[in-house]
Design goal:
The complex is a heterodimer of chains A (242) and B (470). With 242 residues, chain A is of the alpha/beta class. Chain A contains 8 helices and 12 strands. In chain A, strand 1 and strand 2 form a beta hairpin. In chain A, helix 4 crosses helix 5, helix 5 runs parallel beside helix 6 and helix 7 packs antiparallel against helix 8. Chain A is globular, with a radius of gyration of 17 Å. Chain B is of the alpha/beta class and 470 residues long. Chain B has 2 domains: 299 residues, no CATH class; 57 residues, no CATH class. Chain B contains 12 helices and 23 strands. Chains A and B meet through helix 2, strand 7, helix 3 and strand 8 of A and helix 10 and helix 11 of B.
Amino acid sequence: MIGHDGLYVDSLRVSVNGRLVLRGVTLHVPRGRVVGLVGPNGSGKTSLAYAVLGHPLYRVEGGEIYLDGEPLTGLKTEERARRGVFLAFQSPPEIPGLGVRAFLREVAARRGLSLEDGELSSYLRLVGLDESYLGRGVHEGFSGGERKRLEFAQALLFKPKVAILDEVDSGLDLEGVRLLVSKTRELAEAGAGVLFISHNPHVLQLLQPDEVVVLVGGEVALRGGLDVLEEVVRRGYPGVRG
Amino acid sequence: MSKLSLLEGLTLDQVSLDSVGLRARVTLSGRISRSLVEELSRAKKEPEWMLRLRLRSLELFEKLPMPNWLVGIEELNLEELAHYIQPDVQRASSWEELPEEIRRAYERLGLPEIERKALLGLAAQLESENVYLAFRKFLEERGVILMDMSEAVARYPDLVRRYFMRVFPPSDHKFAALHGALWSGGVFLYVPPGVRVEAPIEAFFLIASELESQMEHTIVVAGEGSYVHFIEGCSAPLFKRYSFHNGMVEIYAHRNSHVKFTTIQNWSRNIVNFNNKRALVEEGATVEWVEGSIGSKISYVYPSAILRGEGARVSIANVTIARGATWKDSGAKVYHLAPNTASEVVSKSISAGGGVAVYRGLVRVARGARGSKAAVKCDSLILDKASKALTYPRNEVEEEDATVVHEATTGRLSEEVLFYLRSRGLEEREARRLVVLGYVGDVLGRLPYEYRLVLSKVLELEFEDIGGYA
């Protein structure tokens, strides 16, 4: 047990198929806070998210990941999830024939929750989906924006200790982005540490995170407050020609 | 019996029949000859016309060539099989009348319970004969006949003769001829015009010995405007050697009738399973075939339908599981012979652990079948690198004014889907179960509730312990 609450990533080095994608990343997402993670495409943002959840292809070469001070590396993905890490996927997959209702109930049951249709649909409404989505297959025929909303509904429903929101804003109209930004703040107010990943610094300006981390080439290039965002908006990502 | 033990009983292979102490009253084995067929007919006290049908079938069997496309039946040696085993048991119409050991085996399979909960009639065949047959009195009073096939041959010869091997003649192929020569058991179900049988009737087939051939013959006749749902279940314990099943089902759906025929085939993994299934569908009638092909080592089954009357419809839905060293050949055949006929085929296969699942289908729209519609959807899910799925669809369309749609997909269980579900806290086997159940969901939805439970449970047990597609 060490003294960081929430998610603490310490000098994390990760490879995929022998290629190093994270080169010693250190990051702290305290409970109740929102940390914005920005970076250009391929900078390692999603790799960081996958590594925290223990994707089998993402190999930890060095460093450690802690949740409320307990190490996570070595644990299976499902165990990390049960301990309270949630990932809203950038591109959540279609699961044909598996109904949204059955899926949410199954996941809820695994966490000792029993959810009626009324509760499930109230969570869907929070993110702008109506109850008809309960009867559809998971992400089956969903637009990009609908997928993001369903991901976000799960983040609210399962009340994680740490929520990693990977590009939840992409594919959404401005109204949708505003809605999810306000729900992100609610997640943090409810006590979750939120890592909000986006390649769009403007969305982070809307969100006003407590800290901003800029990832470039698998390394933290900059970190700080909102001034860091302004710097990125003005001059582009450090080391990357805009 | 609790629901769980009911399910376990139906889903596990180890229904031990050693303890049953089953004895045969008559056993006919060995070379398939005229004298064997005559002896079989004599043992069953059959009328002359049935003996003639058997002997004609035998001649065809001897003449017809062995199909050259069958895979995996090298070990099948017809000469070493017992073709007829008559158990030394009086047929009962209540479970109490059966010897205790046999009753217990059926209880283990959950049959008495499912009969009480869900069925209006049940026949249970052990080896070559029905040992149990019961159905509700009120159906009998309304003219419904549910009878052991041999008994129907004796008691309703004119009626049975009108149908027996008419839509599936022994000349169709070598094993249809073999069936005609050696059939035993099965039931004759007749539903008079206008009668609706609102709950299912089931026939259950148990093969209890190795090196046995079981060839039951089932006929469902639905009179004009009638409705019936027939279910067949199959089970066998695991043997050291194999056994052979070569059954036949004929459905005659008269004008505006509706027949559902559901099979839950859960033979053990050393059964070589052939089944010959064909329906004749008259004007305005509907036939639904649902085939849950779970067990057996080798299986060749293609429910088929001849849409003979205007507006006749058929739907054929298959779920085929090829897990481990198995070859599961399934599919559907539809012949549109009249105007405005419609067919829908949905086939879902899952291959795992080196299994091969094959879809073999034929849609034929004959000249004159104007305005007919045919839709085939054939999906294969492959769970690991060692397994295969093959599809051989065939369309023969002679009528321009017909719509024939074919859609086929082959998918693999993706690591991304597994990771996604695991990231929600589900264990890998739970994740796999959800994917598999979702995949077969639309076919499962066509089963009665009790059987849906059984099939979901079977799928869970089948897929909980296998590895992912890496």
